[in-house]
Amino acid sequence: MNYSGIITIEPGKRGGKPCIRGLRMTVYDVLEYLAGGMSEAEILADFPDLTVEDIRACLAFAADRERRLLSIPA
Question: Does residue 32 lie in a domain region?
Answer without folding.
Answer: yes
